[in-house]
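**User:** Everyone, produce a chain:

**Assistant:**
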Amino acid sequence: MRTEKKYNLEDWLPISAKEVAKRGWDSLDVILFTGDAYVDHPSFGAAVIGRMLEKHGLKVALVPQPNWRDDLRDFKKLGKPNLFFGVTSGAMDSMVNHYTANKRLRSDDAYTPDGRPGQRPDYATTVYSKILKELFPDVPVVIGGIEASLRRVTHYDYWADELKPSILADSRADLLVYGMGEQPLLELIKLIQKGVPLSSLKTIPQTAFLQDRYVDLPKNKNWKDLELFSHEDCLEEPKKYAQNFRHVEEESNRWNAARLHQNIGDQKLVINPPYPPMTTGELDESFDLPYTRLPHPRYQKKGSIPAFEMIKFSVNMHRGCFGGCSFCTISAHQGKFIASRSKESILKEVKDITEMPDFKGYLSDLGGPSANMYKMEGKDLNICKRCTRPSCIFPNICTNLNTDHSPITDIYKSAHKIEGVKKAFVGSGVRYDLLYNRMASSEEQKSHKEYTEELIKWHVSGRLKVAPEHTSDQVLNVMRKPSFKLFHKFKDDFERVNASNNLNQQIIPYFISSHPGSEEVDMADLACQTKELGFNLEQVQDFTPTPMTVATVIYYSGYHPYTLEEMYTARSKNEKLNQRMYFFWYKSEFKQKIENRLKQIRRFDLLDILFPHQEKAKHNKKEVPKHKTNFSKPKTGKKRR
């Protein structure tokens, strides 16, 4: 019989002066500000950092979603910390949180009680940091989290439609921690506790700061230095911005990376190289901190927090992703090397979940950034340490990559055996291309088949989501995704396992429109191919340019950062809508426009596939090669000045 844990208010980090006083503290070492509500769970970054600092002897408090519009009492209520303020926008970039791909204001915020919008500002990290520097100019401010991490260098901001300098320049923060912050922050507090002032901490890996442009870089004999084009150069010539990005991406994903530096006016941005991947022991230590796994009691009468409801019965098994997709920011923030938790740590968390009061026996996800990369790394790590590839599986799966799925399958089976667990589902996206690795050993290939059977038979909650993203090989090549032919293979296997086990489950593919390199005719062909597979698409999105991705660089500059070739991207609202409508060819409101567009370019072959029973007008069905017509749109992107 399972038992439920009982908690007291003191089991959460304090978020008010009364809670601080209740602990008997007369001062705080670190005060963390976050754009999210406070959920004491390892999926929420502020909770992770707060718990880690607490474990290492610091007195830590947290200020969730401070009011920036009034007399700023939320920024003053806990006073000055002894060491520094920590600032994050939360688990999402605040602009992605606020706006759709069409720049429309969202009506909800998943990280706020009852999903209420408007509880954090645009560019939250910058707003919070500037307020703190104005109120307490002598107290250091350290910024981190996804927003700071992805804006650490010159970046394109889609919502302002301009190239912005490092967030350090606008926020006035003293130090930026990029990526997952445990390692650099542990080193930071260790040195501060030894009496070293934060202003002198210039050689901690995975941090960035600004200094006078004409001052020599801090000495570190172990690092090579790489100078990027200045921010002003990037503003003047977008191709230089594209050239910069290749260096930033490669050095972000190297085991032994160079230190980057870039001039911004009279200042110099310095980005120290990242730490090596966390060990299993280090990652376990982060996940095994004494989280309550629940929202702070202050929210009990304010409504549920949607993001928490989504993940409260899920377990994250690893960090990092070696997919390197052109539109994705995971590797820019977490890195491409996989850091995996131990089996013991994962199963301990599963047992903790079974003790939650409203757990009904169903784990919503055993996964990670990608569901099936757990425990995967290079067979010879010395090769990995020299590698500069941004993806380990594109354009082909690296022969040095161990794609053995046995450890994941073992976790799935073990979780099912824990008392109180009825089903352990996989909600994260599955990289099905890993399951068809022709270069893998016979043992690896055997593990792929066993995993596929185990996954489909036991771990699908009615629908399994995968992300082919497109059907056109030329677009998939830009995306750094495998050929759509592999999706056909996986779909066949999915249906075979379902049939042999008398299951009625669905596979849900995700697709993107208006991605760089995608023309309208590619989207028409996508509609045809997915129709022939029997899909009426639901899980679709229009490409949103977010900082620190290959696709965003192409969108802004018009150049691919690795080839420096010009590339077409849909930019106008009309171009984007014309691509997106093909997802919904089966809806009556789009039928006539799609017909007109396909007739305009004489692609009657595609028209006949989408609407085969229509009365055909007399026409000359001249063959038009696929993917050669783009509705008279220019091949290159619009260069920005």
